[in-house]
Amino acid sequence: MTATVNVYLDKQEYGKDKVRLLKVHKDTNVHRVDDLTIRCLLSGSSFTTSYTEASNKAVVATDSIKNTCYILAKSSKVVDTLELFAAELANHFLNTYGWVEGAHVTIIRHRWARMIIDGKEHNHSFWRDGDETRQTEIFIKRGPNCKGRRTIDLKSSIAGLLVLKTTGSSFEDFVRDEYTTLPETKDRILSTCVDSTWEFNIPAVDSANLLSTLGQIPFNNIYDSVRDVTCDIFAKDESASVQATLYKMAAKSINNWKWLERVSYALPNRHFFAVDLKYFRGTKNLQEHADVYQPLADPSGLITATVARSLGARL
Ligand SMILES: O=c1[nH]c(=O)c2[nH]c(=O)[nH]c2[nH]1
Q1: What tens digit of pLDDT does each residue of 46-98 get?
Q2: Chain mean position to CA 202
Q3: Which family does it belong to (predicted)?
Q4: Of 65, 134, 246, 313, which is the most buried if we count CB atoms within 10 A?
Q5: 118 CA distance to ligand 1 middle (Å)
Q6: Closest C-alpha among 125, 271, 85, 279 to residue 189
Q7: Active-site residue set
Q8: What is the pTM of this model?
Q9: What's the DSSP call for residue 222?
Q10: ipTM over 0.90
Q11: Strands (E), the chain
Q12: Nearest to 306 by CA among 257, 260, 240, 241
């Protein structure tokens, strides 16, 4: 006999994941594209019985959730601003189904860069210039006492921005003990695959004003700027460590944009070791002689941090 255990449903969210959608903006003959992967998850106490009592009475089919992504993409004016399209989708579910308490939408945007043909940007042909993606995640909740009130958790990110610099990076003065084999270096290759997330500070708002309030935030400029800051500091910093370079990147973006509350980075330190070639005719390839390296697939370092705006920094 199995012992009976008292349990309860602690958390739940359901919806459609990996909804693939390409929106082509044909307002002029210079077409633009948004290639998206969308996840929409709904939550609320009304869904409890779908788990505990096999009742689907409150369940909006995930198939309908998928259809909604396409229908809203057809009419929306803001698909090209991920944060606004995610907000439009999430708020749609809250407005349409009075029993939905939370709508959680994540959108990933895949890169398509305009082709250069005969020296000119082509009107309607694109190529995939890397696996890096732009992402946003919004969680909109209905106000507990006021059904038209919305609280908004919103963060956006860059994922998979692969970068490498061939000098301008050192790593010295770290702990040396009986576990240490790594030599100190004044000059090494620095390479990472940037994941960066920036969290917005958004006050609660009425549903009717949600899109116009969010519309005041220059989301696309913030994304471009965080990416530029990341690349600029990566290239120019005389890096003492991944940790120190990361902190400069995050601090700069918080200082640049008043809407940002916290900026996080996860930076794998992809190691490149100079190959010791002295066995071959005494060939010098270490320290200042290094120009042939072996990229190490695994392991990598992993340096992560979140930098937050100081309390009072808004005053
Ligand atoms: O920038 C670095 N930070 C570290 O913490 C570390 N540890 C290590 O072995 N190499 C590096 N590089």
Answers
A1: 999 999 999 999 999 999 999 999 999 999 999 999 999 999 999 999 999 99
A2: 18
A3: Belongs to the uricase family.
A4: 246
A5: 45
A6: 271
A7: 16, 62, 271
A8: 0.95
A9: H
A10: yes
A11: 14-25, 32-43, 102-110, 113-117, 120-127, 133-142, 149-165, 190-200, 205-206, 260-269, 272-274, 293-295, 301-308
A12: 260
